[in-house]
Amino acid sequence: MSTNRRETKQRVAVSAALDQVNEFVSAQQLHSILRDTSDGVGLATVYRTLQQLAEDGEVDVVKTADNESMYRRCSRGHHHHLLCRSCRRTVEVESPSIEKWAQKVASANGFAEVDHVVEITGICADCQAR
Amino acid sequence: MSTNRRETKQRVAVSAALDQVNEFVSAQQLHSILRDTSDGVGLATVYRTLQQLAEDGEVDVVKTADNESMYRRCSRGHHHHLLCRSCRRTVEVESPSIEKWAQKVASANGFAEVDHVVEITGICADCQAR
DNA sequence: TCATACATGGGACTCATTCTCAAATATTGG
DNA sequence: CCAATATTTGAGAATGAGTCCCATGTATGA
Ligand SMILES: [Zn+2]
Ligand SMILES: [Zn+2]
Ligand SMILES: [Zn+2]
Ligand SMILES: [Zn+2]
Hints:
Two copies of one chain form a homodimer.
Chain A lengths: L8 H12 L4 E2 H10 L6 H13 L3 E5 L5 E5 L6 E5 L5 E4 L2 H13 L3 E12 L1 H4 L2
Parallel strand pairs in A: 4-6
Antiparallel strand pairs in A: 1-3, 2-3, 4-5
Helix pairs in contact in A: 1-2, 1-3, 2-3
The structure holds zinc ion (4 copies).
The structure holds a DNA duplex.
């Protein structure tokens, strides 16, 4: 809700850690990454910070098949993801036609406050080559 | 993987209960619905049965925002859903162009074994009028 | 009817995520 | 710089969906 966030070393640490990975990572992974380096950050704080970053549109969130939230610093603006189920390599994809389609289907059926989830998964070329 | 399922009264009960609702329901909801009628069905069995029905393509599964799996008996064949976040009213939608788009984006990036998740949510006309 | 492979369910267990709240700390007005 | 104050932190407890274990029950086919 609020946009007034204090700059604590924990928040900086989480943000910095996110910058070091290019794929989606879970709160737990980030927590153990931070455990090793310098002063660790509490798990609760990692969760809170990631949620806030997501609220602020700083990171994107996707859910794995086994219900784990994964976070990634993405480019700003609405987009979707094509991601490798094996190595989590991520490709951001944009498609105005998909957005229009979703909106059209919804309003054609009388729905308002439309939202949508569109994610494509697969096995990337590298992972296919094993 | 197997398709050899025995016809037990529990399985019949779960399947019948599913037929009585037209929206997506969770395993827990189905369990408490069944608790009231006749002989209840164990929670573990409800989960198992729903999973099997999903495997067999008898029901569709969607995840709520708070990571709960919801099941619904849908028409056969691949399709997606437009669903009301308030009352869970569901509209099945088909769109060959979306399917082609997903496949094209994936192969253009060297991905194989492509899968995708496409769900549209909103507030239905009735819930807006509420 | 019998043998037996498969199904059931109560309860313990997992595990991501949230909650609690006292102690730590960033911010700010003076 | 300093004290007052509003936030933030984090260790551990709590939550809750879903899974597992396994002794008991049963659908099914010979
Ligand atoms: Zn890969
Ligand atoms: Zn979109
Ligand atoms: Zn509705
Ligand atoms: Zn599709």
